[in-house]
Design a protein that fits this description.
73 residues; 41% helix
């Protein structure tokens, strides 16, 4: 498995979180459309993608992924 953090949050915050979780692949300040494009590219390479998102801005990426998880409230 390859883990990625792809977030709209500030790059420095994402870098710190990735370091704390020992995740090597991370991007910060990513737009919702960019998230969707990253997932599309991973899928085109034959990967299966699980997207975990927590907001409306993640809707396109969640629906593009092979599978997705989002909290319901």
């Amino acid at each position: 498995y390859k883990l990625y953090i792809i977030s709209g949050d500030k790059k420095e915050n994402v870098k710190k979180l990735a370091r704390d979780l020992e995740i090597r692949n991370y991007l910060g300040e990513v737009t919702p459309q960019e998230k969707c494009n990253i997932i599309k590219n991973l899928l085109l390479k034959g990967n299966k993608v699980l997207m975990i998102g927590d907001g409306l801005n993640d809707l396109a990426a969640l629906s593009t992924a092979s599978a997705s998880i989002s909290p319901t409230t």
